[in-house]
Amino acid sequence: MLVFNGRGTQLASAVRQVDIRQPQPDRVEQDASDIVQSVQQALADVAEQLGTRCCNIHSAGLATQRSNIVCWDRETGAALSPAISWQDRRAWRWMQQFSAQRAQIRDLTGLLPSPHYGVSKIHWCLEQLAEVKAACDRGTLACGPLASFLLFRLLKANPFVVDAVNASRTLLWDWRQRHWSVDLLKMFGLSDKYLPQCVANRYAFGELDITHATVPLTVCTGDQSAAVFAGGKPEAGVACINIGTGAFLQCVAPPIKTATENPAQANLLHSVVWDDGDDSVHVLEATVNGAGSALLAAAKGLGISVEDAQSQYSHWLATAENIPLYLNGVSGLGSPFWLPQFTSQFVGPHATNAQPSEKMVAVLESIVFLLRLNLEQMRHAGVLLQRIVISGGLSILDGLCQRLADISRLPVERSPQTEATAKGLAYLLAKPEQAWVSASEASHFMPQNNVALHERYQHWHRALHAAVDEVNAV
């Protein structure tokens, strides 16, 4: 949680961790009540830092991971399901039956049929969780994105609403109507009786009680959607990349008009990142599902502690020599392949004899390679790329940023404030006329002629496509 003034200067911050559970390989979840408590504790921490200055806070905003869902009871507010993560693919087999409706789903939502989105998770809860089914029978069930659950639990009036961005990641929201799609609800066998009311991203959501003040919450959106506004309104030709648990690449695009598109766009997402009822901003989006999560999985498999890995990434990137290749399917292989089940593996001449540190560098390079592949997809889709703006936790690694510049042959710009979601959310709240971070304050990485990296990329590219062909042949 961060607090900014009207010039974009950070005044206070608080962090509270919430444990992630992975009871099965394709399941990723958190305790929904723990998330509520963590936000309340962070609010208390920030209030303590600011003291009576809390009275000067004029508005608050909320940004969450977009495809996480929760089921809860509207009478008691009690969570009836875990917060099921966007990474979760527990219902991927059920989702496969809708492949034939890909064109219709794409036309209505701008997205593709995938278990990463909310609809499959809501269906699973209704089918598998007795408390959810009982609440549905009683007429007290609420299902929706994590943002809706937090708004309901944190705000004084317990609003039952969902903003446009988070609604769009359920695979049930029609971008033209700005509402739940009757056709999609019928297709997936769901009802809007337990779904929240659809509203704009800028809306009078309700009041948030903090020490010394009551603050109106006026903006709600998704984490990656807020990130593209970290430097102000997103510009054409700029590839915004935010690297956290996953890596997300977004480029400004016009709203979709028909289902007929440039063929290269068909495997990219056409996402809404802002909708205030009068104006909307759309992007072409690509996803790398395994970024921070891939590093965590690899470190665990190699017997390296998370703390040791994080402290050594920069050194490893600078010194590794016998770097293998890593086919990164952690949480499924994202764009442009969209394979929910894909086996991650080290390949290449150094796959068996590389040191654990060199294998960790291979995982870092796999993130960069997947981004390069999707940058090419953006170019084929008609995006005239001029530069990359990078943010997120992993963007602090100079070696990773330089590799991205080298492999993409584009200049990479990194803001001194790498927490782009909070910065972008603050921009949307304050609506300043100018970008918050000038180019002189950013770090710049210019492309260099890294022959060895390009050679590894070519070998990786061939190996990845061969592995994808094997999966598709089954």
Describe this structure in words.
This protein has 474 residues and is of the alpha+beta class. It has 15 helices and 22 strands. It has helices at 32-50, 92-96, 102-109, 118-128, 130-138, 146-154, 164-168, 182-188, 223-227, 292-302, 306-319, 356-380, 398-408, 420-430, 451-473, and strands at 2-4, 10-13, 29-30, 60-64, 69-73, 83-84, 141-145, 161-163, 173-174, 179-180, 197-199, 202-210, 213-222, 238-243, 247-253, 269-275, 280-288, 325-327, 345-347, 387-391, 412-414, 443-445. Strand 12 (202-210) and strand 13 form a beta hairpin. Helix 1 crosses helix 6, helix 11 (306-319) packs across helix 12 and helix 12 crosses helix 13. The chain is globular, with a radius of gyration of 22 Å.
Q: Note the main sheet.
A: 7 strands, mixed
Poorly predicted parts: none
Q: Structural class of the secondary structure composition?
A: alpha+beta
- Can you tell me the CATH architecture of the largest domain? 2-Layer Sandwich
Broad CATH class of the largest domain? Alpha Beta
The N- to C-terminal Cα distance equals 46 Å
> What's the number of helices?
15
Overall geometry comes to: globular
- In CATH, the topology of the largest domain is named Nucleotidyltransferase, domain 5
Main sheet: strand order: 16-17-15-14-20-21-22
Number of domains: 2
CA radius of gyration: 22 Å
> What oligomeric state is this?
single chain
Summarize the structure.
The chain is α+β, with helices and mostly antiparallel strands and 474 residues long.
